[in-house]
């Protein structure tokens, strides 16, 4: 059997968008599943809008996600003579004609006015009547090819077997098939994948916040979680499992199992998946992935204490969905000057609370060691002596050292912060104005 060859064909006119990454992924998954080749073609004939910075970003985002091409990149801007050659062939065979325009000469395909029928692997039989179509422009008067022409020429030259792309390209397909027919080449198979809609079911766009993969990378989502998330937009394994490793997805992926209904972009699902991956990673792996983000934000020194940082991650591993979220919850571990949640202060800090905090502080200052067990024992004893529920010591202490009303076990947190910082924070809270 012939080798399966698919391609992802981005135009470098913007950053890699969620929808494009999903298209790239379906191509890549199919190639992997079939032991075929995944190729990348850069559609950069629009010189004004194409930018090197976008190209670099697209390639680095694809690489970050683990999708690298199996052969060298194709650049359309470097292939103008090839398109000219194909156009000339059509002119010579009287299948195309010149058109005079103000700027020069364009080349158009003569419309044979035929019925175009193709079998889309996802959507089944699709028919178009080309009677109403104008003669398709192949080469523009500025000497550059149109998208539909360059796409066909390159798909032929790259020996593409399956064109997997967004449903928004369905209307281009009959035009491209007309070009294949004129060139006497059998078209590849077409696979149009459903659009991605925003949660309000309108088309996903910048209005939904972050749409570039780079934004998700920046926020601290893991590539594996993003791959899993993208795969579920328009595809699912038969058993409705949601968390699947990239290997599992590759194994189960098939074109037949792509859905025809639009996919809905659900950020909560990405958060959930990402948190599942964090939980599943050993603390060391999670810590190594997360540390660079904190270093970049100036929250962690380059030569940070790895063991200590791992313990922080361990304490939080079931509590956060992405790195932004982690930073929000655990910033007090990394910053000397903390932010106080005013609601938490109001709820837990009052005169009584301050007096319990002070008593607790005195005792833990004298304690021989500063481990979780000792800190817990001291709190329990103090509560007993005072005849109060120990929650009345724990909650205000938590607010004093974390600025928040929620955290992992307070004793874990105290031990993580260390004696010096804890004593200082418990002292500082005494200056908090209370009624
Ligand atoms: N450059 C086109 C796009 O970004 C490629 C479409 C295709 O895959 O044929 O949508």
Average of per-residue pLDDT values = 95
Gross geometry: elongated
CATH topology of the domain at 207-333: Glutamyl-tRNA Synthetase, domain 2
The residue fraction in helices comes out at 40-55%
Structural class: alpha/beta
Unreliably modeled segments? none
Question: What is the CATH class designation of the domain at 207-333?
Answer: Mainly Alpha
Number of helices: 18
Q: Which small-molecule ligands are present, each listed once?
A: glutamic acid
What distance separates the N and C termini? Answer: 81 Å
- Give the beta-strand count: 12
- Tell me which CATH architecture of the domain at 207-333 applies here: Orthogonal Bundle
- How large a portion of the residues is in β-strands, by DSSP E? 5-15%
Main beta-sheet annotation: 3 strands, parallel
* Strand line-up in the sheet with most strands: 1-2-3
Radius of gyration: 30 Å
Describe this structure in words.
- With 435 residues, the protein is α/β, with parallel strands linked by helices.
- Among the domains are: 207-333, Glutamyl-trna Synthetase, Domain 2 (Glutamyl-tRNA Synthetase, domain 2); 342-431, Arc Repressor Mutant, subunit A (Orthogonal Bundle), CATH 1.10.10.350.
- Helices cover 47% and strands 12% of the residues.
- It contains 18 helices and 12 strands.
- The chain has helices at residues 18-33, 52-65, 80-92, 147-157, 172-183, 213-219, 223-231, 246-252, 267-280, 283-296, 306-316, 323-330, 342-348, 351-366, 372-386, 391-402, 410-417, 419-428, and strands at residues 5-8, 37-42, 74-75, 96-100, 105-109, 115-120, 124-129, 137-139, 162-166, 189-193, 196-197, 263-264.
- The strands form 5 sheets. The chain has a 3-stranded parallel β-sheet with strand order 1-2-3. A 3-stranded antiparallel β-sheet has the order 4-5-8. A two-stranded antiparallel sheet has the order 6-7.
- Helix 7 packs across helix 9 (267-280).
- The protein starts with a strand and ends in a 7-residue tail after the last helix.
- The model has no long low-confidence stretch (mean pLDDT 95).
- The chain binds glutamic acid (GLU).
């Amino acid at each position: 059997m012939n080798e399966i060859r698919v391609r992802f064909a981005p135009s470098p006119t913007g950053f890699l968008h969620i929808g494009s990454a999903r298209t790239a992924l379906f191509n890549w998954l199919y190639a992997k599943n079939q032991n075929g080749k995944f190729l990348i073609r850069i559609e950069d004939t629009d010189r004004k809008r194409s930018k090197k910075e976008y190209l670099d970003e697209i390639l680095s985002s694809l690489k970050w996600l683990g999708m690298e091409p199996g052969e060298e990149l194709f650049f359309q801007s470097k292939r103008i003579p090839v398109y000219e050659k194909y156009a000339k062939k059509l002119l010579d065979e009287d299948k195309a004609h010149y058109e005079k325009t103000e700027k020069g000469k364009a080349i158009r395909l003569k419309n044979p006015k035929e019925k175009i029928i193709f079998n889309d692997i996802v959507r089944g039989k699709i028919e178009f009547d080309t009677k109403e179509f104008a003669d398709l422009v192949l080469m523009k008067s500025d000497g550059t090819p149109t998208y539909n022409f360059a796409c066909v020429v390159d798909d032929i030259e790259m020996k593409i077997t399956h064109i997997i792309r967004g449903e928004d390209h369905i209307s281009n397909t009959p035009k491209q098939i007309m070009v294949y027919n004129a060139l006497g080449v059998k078209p590849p198979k077409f696979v149009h994948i459903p659009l991605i809609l925003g949660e309000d079911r309108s088309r996903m766009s910048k209005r939904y916040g972050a749409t570039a993969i780079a934004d998700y990378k920046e926020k601290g989502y893991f590539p594996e979680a993003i791959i899993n998330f993208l795969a579920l937009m328009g595809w699912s394994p038969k058993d409705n499992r949601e968390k699947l490793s990239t290997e599992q997805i590759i194994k189960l992926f098939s074109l037949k199992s792509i859905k025809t209904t639009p996919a809905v972009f659900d950020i909560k699902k990405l958060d959930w998946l990402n948190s599942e991956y964090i939980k599943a990673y050993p603390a060391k792996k999670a810590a190594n992935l997360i540390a660079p983000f904190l270093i970049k934000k100036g929250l962690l020194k380059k030569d940070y204490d790895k063991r200590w940082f791992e313990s922080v991650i361990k304490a939080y591993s079931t509590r956060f969905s992405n790195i932004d979220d982690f930073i929000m919850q655990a910033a007090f571990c990394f910053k000397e000057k903390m932010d106080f949640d005013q609601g938490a202060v109001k709820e837990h800090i009052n005169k009584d609370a301050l007096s319990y905090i002070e008593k607790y502080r005195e005792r833990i200052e004298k304690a021989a060691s500063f481990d979780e067990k000792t800190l817990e024992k001291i709190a329990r004893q103090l509560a007993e002596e005072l005849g109060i529920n120990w929650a009345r010591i724990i909650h205000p202490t938590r607010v004093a050292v974390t600025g928040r009303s929620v955290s992992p076990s307070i004793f874990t947190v105290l031990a993580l912060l260390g004696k010096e910082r804890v004593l200082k924070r418990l002292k500082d809270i005494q200056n908090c104005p209370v009624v």
